Amino acid sequence: MFDLNELYQQVILDHNKNPRNFGPLPEADRDAEGHNPLCGDHYHVYVKLDGDRVAEVRFSGEGCAISKAAASVMTEAVKGRTTEEIQELFDSYQALVMGRAGADVSMEKLGKVAVFSGVSEFPMRVKCAILPWHTLKAALENTEEPVTTE
Fold this sequence. Notes:
Blueprint: H1 4-17, E1 30-36, E2 41-50, E3 53-62, H2 65-78, H3 83-97, H4 107-110, H5 126-140, E4 147-148
Parallel strand pairs: 1-4
Antiparallel strand pairs: 1-2, 2-3
Helix pairs in contact: 1-2, 2-5, 3-5
């Protein structure tokens, strides 16, 4: 059986070194900026909508390996989903990384983002893992204020 912690480490290393959907999206309908002052993570998330469905999503910026990997995996997970589906995924992911995931959080529904369950063991890293998601949520809500983890 494959160890989830080992998978977590492999996903973080891979997505940090080779982030997916990295770079600006000039034709974005929505975008938002997010910052974690504690460790210096700073990202910009760009979204192109087709109705209420995410047609394209990208991110730019820099930060620690966990935040970059979380942003990369997030972009893969939300592309093609509706804003309602993304909100449900956001809620489940947030509960997972904060160690509050109960029986109502389906690991199968979470898909690849489930590997971030290991973040809950490192409370100082939770903000790193959640920053890209809060930034995406702000972009979808068309919020103009930058997102901060503080």
